[in-house]
Amino acid sequence: MANHASAIKRQKQSVKRNARNRAARTRVKNVVKAVRAAIKNNDKAAAQEQLRLASSALSRIAGKGVIHKKNASRKVSRLAKAVNAMA
After folding, report:
1. Alpha carbon 50 to chain centroid distance?
2. CATH superfamily of this structure's domain 5-84
3. What pTM, to 2 d.p., does this model score?
């Protein structure tokens, strides 16, 4: 256990930040799953709407440094490619 006041504070901040980042990553996983589900159901309108939401969520967490910007960009690109490939 940390003994110095600064180390105790850093530990508290770390726990708080870890929880916030985990929640953000989970949220993104869920919106990506929603896009994939809409693609699987062959619902183009829903897929485009879910893609818009997923793109927004991904860029938001990339901007905060939860995931790397290029990782977010790659995910958006692959989802957009899948939505555009729908008949």
Report:
1. 13
2. Ribosomal protein S20 (1.20.58.110)
3. 0.85
Backbone angles phi, psi at 30, to 5 degrees: -70, -40
Contact 86, 42 (CB under 8 A): yes
- The whole-angstrom separation of Cα 66 and Cα 83 is 25
And the tokens for 16? 């708080």
CB 39 within 8 A of CB 87: no
Segment 35-84, tens digit of pLDDT: 999 999 999 999 999 999 999 999 999 999 999 999 999 999 999 999 99
Q: Look-up: residue for tokens 């893609």?
A: 51
Backbone dihedral region of 4: left (phi > 0), alpha (psi from -120 to 50 degrees) or beta?
beta
d(CA 28, CA 80): 15
CA dihedral 11→13→19→25, nearest 10 degrees, is -120
